[in-house]
Specification:
Layout: E1 22-23, E2 35-42, E3 52-60, E4 70-75, H1 83-93, H2 96-101, E5 102-107, H3 124-131, H4 135-143, H5 156-170, E6 175-180, H6 182-193, E7 198-204, H7 214-237, H8 239-242, H9 248-263, H10 287-312, H11 322-330, H12 337-346, H13 358-378, H14 388-398, H15 401-411, E8 437-441, H16 449-459, E9 462-466, H17 480-492, E10 499-500
Parallel strand pairs: 4-5, 4-6, 6-7, 7-8, 8-9, 9-10
Antiparallel strand pairs: 1-2, 2-3, 3-5
């Protein structure tokens, strides 16, 4: 069924566009072709007398105006992802035909710079509470400005309503959407609230509404551990390039040694299982017993080693290692894996050289604060007190980020003192003319496959299962099957693609 500007017929830019487009703020350093405008929106849609905030909008114009089909709203995830910084990048990452035929629109989520960001006072006491794991409650105190509830309007539903206010200002009857990660929550909320104004939606790396938010972070624990072992397998398979070992366990030991060299503390993530290549010649006759013994004792041994090192010097902790932090951060994108391997082989000199400036750091802090506020404002999953010991151990003893993040939310510490003020509306595909397209990676650590399938079911979506675990299947580059599915879907409303291979590693080895 043809829907709005997403039908087969091309259209010109909407004559009803009321926005005053101009140059984007200098801190984004965007190309002059990228345009920005502001749209006033209610601070609280449930309380119109509470005033307005100005929300910044950016636009990457359709590169072939004669073939323009309409507008494609984007969101890079988070919550806390900056839509102004990401919109042009997403436009370039999506298939060429899409940026040729759609105005790609980024609407800054409320709570970020240029969208009603709260003034947060980060006193030493607040920073200490955040460092101890009580981020949500401390952030709410820091950002409410002495007025309890001042940040309660920072919710997914309000941001979705901002989208509709922007849609009206653009003079568009419907919007198409590309939403990544948290962007799938925002997009599905918009579709639930405004199905009559929703065109075609690409939901990339979808999030289960029932997991918001404690369970999302808990589910990521297993996902990140599994993806780490995928990394060890990959580096071992490229031993001819990196020389770090022909088995995952050998690679793990080199990775661990480099972290000890840098920070004094060893990682406590359990080693991968021993393989035949890990058995010393003297134990060949009892190879199976040797491997079983290594696998049995390995997890306890590394925990003990880390405990001893930290007892000798409390500063000796894995969390002080740049390589350790970079490894976890880079796991969802395989194009970062060659860099990890080079750092393990060559040391920190192989780390990317770009360093954030003061503006970058300010934006990172704003993102983290906004994320903490939204997660706790909407958290609908009850805490699990039985997981408090795991949170205490991973936070204050081992500093193990592969456990601490999930335990902190699931146990309840991360939103202690910041009870929920609302919930995200239950997703529904009722009223949509075209079922959404969901792209979901089988081993994506940030948005586990099972959760994505539940959102797809709720929306009646067409699913493309993508091998591997890259987060953001449509923007990794080089995956021609995913590109075909996205292009077919956005241009016709359907695709016959149901499965795609893992994207190739296109970064230099």
């Amino acid at each position: 069924m043809a829907i709005g500007f997403a039908s087969g017929a091309a259209s010109s830019a909407s004559a009803a566009d009321t926005l005053d487009w101009g140059v984007c703020p200098a801190e984004y350093a965007l190309d002059a072709a990228e345009q920005c405008a502001t749209v006033p929106v209610p601070r609280d849609y449930g309380n119109p007398d509470a005033g307005t905030i100005d929300v910044l909008v950016t636009r990457h114009r359709a590169e072939d105006p004669s073939a323009r089909r309409g507008v494609l709203f984007t969101n890079p995830g988070g919550p806390g992802g900056d839509a102004i910084a990401s919109n042009a990048m997403l436009a370039q990452a999506l298939p060429e035909q899409i940026r040729q035929q759609w105005d790609v629109i980024g609407v800054q989520p409320r709570g970020l710079p240029h969208a009603g960001a709260p003034e947060c006072v980060l006193s030493p006491e607040i920073m200490a509470a955040m460092g101890a794991g009580f981020g949500g409650g401390a952030t709410r105190v820091a950002c409410d400005g002495g007025t309890p509830g001042a940040t309660a309007h920072l919710t997914t539903e309000n941001t979705a309503r901002d989208w509709d206010t922007v849609r009206t200002a653009l003079g568009e009857d419907r919007i198409d959407v590309y939403g990544l990660s948290y962007g799938t929550t925002l997009a599905s909320t918009y579709a639930t609230l405004f199905p009559q104004h929703t065109g075609r939606m690409v939901l990339d790396s979808a999030v289960d509404r029932g997991w918001l938010w404690n369970e999302v972070l808990w589910q990521q624990n297993d996902g990140y551990r599994g993806r780490f072992y995928d990394l060890m397998d990959w580096i071992a398979a490229h031993d001819d390039t990196y020389g770090l070992g022909a088995t995952p366990l050998q690679v793990y030991q080199r990775w661990s040694d480099r972290i000890v060299e840098e920070a004094g503390g060893n990682p406590t993530l359990a080693p991968p299982p021993a393989q035949i290549g890990d058995v010393p010649p003297a134990f060949t006759a009892v190879a199976d017993a040797y491997r079983a013994g290594v696998d049995l004792t390995g997890p306890a041994r590394i925990q003990f080693e880390a405990f001893v090192r930290r007892t000798i010097d409390p500063a000796h902790t894995q969390a002080a290692s740049s390589l350790y932090l970079f490894t976890r951060q880079a796991l969802p994108a395989r194009n970062s894996w060659p860099t990890i391997a080079r750092v393990v082989r060559d040391g920190l000199s192989a780390m990317p050289e770009s360093q954030p400036d003061e503006t970058d750091l300010d934006m990172m802090v704003a993102s983290q604060l906004m994320q903490a506020l939204v997660l706790c404002n909407e958290n609908a999953v009850l805490p699990r007190p039985d997981r408090i010991p795991g949170w205490l151990f991973s936070t204050f003893v081992t500093g193990d980020l592969f456990d601490a993040v999930g335990y902190g939310f699931s146990a309840g510490a991360s939103c202690a003192g910041a009870p929920a003020v609302t919930t995200v509306p239950a997703p529904s595909g009722a009223g949509l003319d075209t079922p959404p397209l969901v792209l979901q990676g089988l081993r994506d650590p940030q948005t586990p496959y099972a959760g994505g399938m539940r959102l797809a079911d709720a929306l009646g979506a067409h699913v493309v299962t993508v091998d591997g675990g890259d987060h953001g299947a449509a923007i990794q580059g080089g995956n021609t099957v995913v590109d075909r599915a996205v292009t077919e879907y956005l241009t016709t409303g359907t695709t016959d693609v149901t499965h795609a291979p893992e994207a190739p590693v296109t970064a230099p080895l």
